[in-house]
Amino acid sequence: MSISLYNVLSREKEVFKPITEGQVMMYVCGPTVYDNAHLGHAKTYVSFDVIVRWLRYSGYKVRYVQNITDVGHLLDDGEDRILKGARREKIEPMELVERYMRNYFRDMDALGVTRPDISPRASAHVPEQIEMVKTLIEKGHAYEVNGSVYFSVESFPEYGKLSGRKTEELEAGKRVTVRDEKRHPMDFALWIKAPDAHVLKWPSPWGWGYPGWHIECSAMSNRYLGETFDIHGGGVDNIFPHNECEIAQSEAAHGAAFCNYWMLGGTLLNEGVKMSKSLGNFVTIQDSLKKYRPEALRMFILSGLYRSPADYSDEALQSALRGWERLNIAATRVKDAIKRGDFATPDAETEARLTNRLDQARMQFTSAMNDDFNAPLAISALFDMGKDMNAALDDGTASKAVLEQAAAIYRELAGDVLGILRDENAAGGNGDADREAALIEMLIEMRTQARAAKDFARADVIRKRLTELGVTLEDGPKGTGYRITG
Predict the structure, then answer these.
(1) CB–CB of 405/331 below 8 Å?
(2) Does 16-312 carry CATH code 3.30.450.200?
(3) Which residues of the chain have pLDDT under 70?
(4) Is 142 helix (H, G, I), strand (E, B) or coil?
(5) What does the alpha-carbon distance between residue 397 and residue 270 come to, in Å, rounded to a whole number?
(6) Is the CB of residue 383 less than 8 Å from the CB of residue 327?
(7) Tens of pLDDT, residues 22-35
């Protein structure tokens, strides 16, 4: 079954056809590392993590590139965000970059986001950016004024085709600094002349300076994915001017399509307003992880379509946590039943019915993900399956084959694809999860020994403490199992 995705460029859902069969070349605009990442970043990068996971699960070889912006991303007043952050913390700019880049990857690791194959830094690819600027000047799409170089939007008639904006309708200076030296108000900087005191600067044919924000993505995607690649992802808030400028300078320089499919994620709102650092209404990933499990945060993000906006609230996170608990309880019951050997020997009709239901769940999940990566619908298929498995475990009709089939679905689809259930026994799995499971098993063994010695007070204390920690024990004829409920 083929994968369909919504292409922002065509404004239609299209069947995905990669340039090279069986291979996907994908670029996603990464963070500007001048402060800690917030939940808006989590929404974008968890969403694209699942997209990459599904493509790989579907058999594609994916090269996933996500840049790190450490120079050239200017505020509306023209100041570089990195320099402002360094001044705020009274440290060197590259010290700031290293600190928050490490924090970013730590946050993504905590959320279970698979690291990109390549995470190129803008400051490490200045030569490639200079070469692209030189090409644009040579082809008549850019001009130099007083040591700065600007892209001429009038030289590229298709400027605005991604956002749908017309050049003549654009408000002068919208989200960019207007300079008197520009020929047209919407011309954008490819290279910026650096004042003598400016720290982040490099030599160029036009003098000492630094690259504009947009040119880095064009240069680095070209370096690692080629002139034309398959998928460009990111947040919809960057559609103008960033993505629009990427297209213009890339296609003007190479005379070829920049990328074939544009996938842009919806924004995260806080009480109806976009969550952002500039507005001060953001919640950092670090602070969120102090209150919620990473799987609950992923559940919240995946409960809506990747390209739709989502509204943050504690109520929404609590709802996502409860949903995760339902899913985890069903998966844990299946795993524990297998571990205890608690199998049934049902009649052929019951076996066929349960097997068919599991096959349907897998097909429904696959159909949902193949339809523009519809994670909410995929999760609902897992919930429906959970109801069936809970019922089968309650009435004792789940055979070993059925339980193993269900466990595989949870492991592959909820775990490998969505990242909302962890396989604690997988090779290279999460070390904290492995230790947590081992400690719980040790406490269960201690409780069993206490009960055997008729020390019921001690056994009750162990059960109570585990319950307080969100671990519910389930005693059965073949031993004690447990499920995580908080």
Answers:
(1) no
(2) no
(3) 167-179, 423-438, 477-478, 483-486
(4) strand
(5) 46
(6) yes
(7) 999 999 999 999 99
